[in-house]
Amino acid sequence: MLVAISPTPVFAARNRGEVIKADFGVSEALTTLAKRPQAAEPIGVEIPERGPIVPDTGFSGDTTGVQNADAPTTQAIPPAVSFDGLTGTAKPPDPVGDVGPSHYVEMVNTRVGVYTKAGANLLNVTIGSIFTGLPGTHKCEGNYGDPIVLHDQLANRWLLTQFTSSSPYFLCVAVSQTANPTGAYWLYAFSTGVNFPDYPKFGVWSGAYLASTKEFNGAAFAGVGTYALERSKMLAGSPAKALKVLLTTAGGAWRPGDGLLPADLDGTTLPPNPNLAYFIGTMDNGAGTGAPFDGINVYWLRWDFATNAVTLTLRSSLAISAIDTIYPCSPGSRDCLEQSGTTQKLDILSYRQRPMHRAAYRNFGAYESIVTNQSAEFVFAGTSRAGLRWYEIRGLGTTPVVAQQGSYAASGTARIHRWMGSIAQDKAKNMAIGYSISSSTMFPGIRYTGRLATDPINTLPQGEGIIVNGTGAQTGSPRWGDYTSMNIDPVDDCTYWYVNQYYSVTGGTWKTRIGHFRYPSC
Predict the structure, then answer these.
(1) Of 32, 130, 411, 442, which residue is the least packed, with the fewest Cβ within 10 Å?
(2) CB 508 within 8 Å of CB 104
(3) Contact in structure between 368 and 361 (CB atoms under 8 Å)
(4) Contact between 313 and 306 (Cβ < 8 Å)
(5) Greater pLDDT, 333 or 106
(6) What's residue 16's pLDDT?
(7) Residue 48 class from Cβ within 10 Å (0-12 exposed, 13-18 middle, 19+ buried)?
């Protein structure tokens, strides 16, 4: 097996490649599973996240050119549809979803919900129940969390995933047998051995399903996993394998940034090379991880399932405007952002320095493009607030460049927080980003903004739309997110669908809200 990484990054990365043969099985139809009693959700359980606490050392970001999110702008388009999704008490909920020709599928920690596009709930099942037809010792039949759902537009299939939480560890992946997400699934369990595959993220590519993980051996950081899963076999319901490169650092030190995102294909124009995909990471030189500068790292993962060859290459490290991802949280390391009606603060999660789900990829013919975002600290008048930093990267298959970037944050005295974003592009090159919003006088809600392809670069001037205004605050825990999802409807390649969490009543029971909208110019 060929394994290589080049050029050698400044943080002295090492790597280890391997072939992983998956356990394979078949599920019952979700409609059948839904007729049985479902396991109760653990009340109020908090799912731990691993990693070091990085202390704040003062603001090191750049507020030059920050777009004031509170300033009046063009009137945004209201959501065409907005409806409640799944609800629960386990924290964080990890709300995520995707849209297909006729359905919207949502996942949260422990559960899956399938909806019509009008918002009618067709079924709810626990994630683990889907994997009861999978033989082996993987424990995928449990309800562990960090779910991801993706619609594979090229094949019109659905991908449902979670991890397991005890050694030996697995990535659990279900691929629908047909275009109907309420039917049966092919089941796969890919072992990560003694490494716990935290915060797994997935992407659709023409030659593979892609995955990334942040892996731990016990309490010790083991590396960042990059995977190519044998998509053609998984779509056919055949036994499949994964090719993996684990990106590690000498001495177990934390690498710049804290995890990678795999590219996730939008639209039907294929990438130039089905066996070469892009992974994106961000880094902050003020975060104590050894980053040489504030930047974006672009990796190439190449694979050949016939020969089991896999190669990970650090293609480019691109400088970005100065960013500060370490927020002055207090009293705890996750007690960061104010909300109305309570002293309980919410987690910003920016200190993990990772780009937020998704790395939305499009091939526009003349160029390839990925858009992504992250949360960050911004300081005005001596006070901190959460805001969004977003990026568009082009030249991915040749010489990557940051085509545009922007910061979207409140620069007034109200200290309104905007964070936990997800961004995508439609076929007309417009963009939209959804996010959480809160302040000391505002309950957490769900909003979005965006830009037209004809708008000035580096700006999101299309105003702020409201999916739902919260009417309650979260108490008892700071955990929020840990991610959300903005996706594009494959029917018109124009309509944006977004899911996030909110509260209708102060307490510990969160709700999720799903909304969609589109620009008339698309």
Answers:
(1) 32
(2) no
(3) yes
(4) no
(5) 106
(6) 58
(7) exposed
The length of the chain is 522
Q: What is the pLDDT of residue 7?
A: 39
Which DSSP string corresponds to 139-163? -TTS-----EEEEETTTTEEEEEEE
Sign, CA dihedral 19-25-26-30, equals negative
Has residue 389 got a pLDDT over 90?
yes
Q: Is the dihedral of CA 65, 70, 73, 78 positive or negative?
A: positive
Pairing of strands 96-99, 81-88: unpaired
- DSSP code string of 16-53: EEEEEEPEEEEPPPHHHHHTSPPPPPPTT-B----SPP
Q: How far is CA 374 from CA 48, 71, 158, 353, in A?
A: 21, 21, 26, 8
Dihedral of alpha carbons 219, 221, 223, 227, sign: positive
Beta bridge partners of 304: 309
Torsion of Cα atoms, 518 then 427 then 481 then 261, to 10°: 180
Take residue 107 and report the two structure tokens written for it: 């996942």
Give the residues across from 465 on adjacent strands: 448
- Residues paired with 161 in a beta bridge: 148, 173
Average pLDDT of the segment spanning 200-212: 99
- Omega before residue 482 within 30° of 0, cis: yes
Q: What is the pLDDT of residue 423?
A: 99
Q: What angle do CA 183, 186, 188 make, to 5 degrees?
A: 140
- Compute the mean pLDDT over every residue in the chain, rounded to the nearest whole number: 92
Q: Is pLDDT above 50 for 1? A: no
Domain boundaries, the chain: 14-21+48-90+204-517
Contact between 458 and 391 under an 8 Å Cβ cutoff? The reply is: no
Question: Can you spell out the DSSP letters for 308-377?
Answer: TEEEEEEEEEEE-S---------SSTT--B--TTSS--B---GGG-PPEEEEEEEE-SS-EEEEEEEEEE
CATH class name, domain 14-21+48-90+204-517: mainly beta
Residue 41, pLDDT score: 75
**Closest Cα to residue 99, out of 462, 458, 424, 431?**
424
Instruction: Say if residue 14's pLDDT is above 70.
Output: no
Q: What does 163-223 look like in DSSP terms, one character per residue?
A: E--SSSEEEEEEEESSS-TTS-EEEEEEEEETSEEEEEEEEE-SS-EEEEEEEEETTEEEE
Report pLDDT for 256. 54
Which tokens sit at 152? 């594979």
Nearest to 247 by CA among 225, 215, 218: 225
Pairing of strands 209-217, 276-283: unpaired
d(CA 254, CA 396): 26
Q: Are 111 and 66 in contact (CB under 8 A)?
A: no
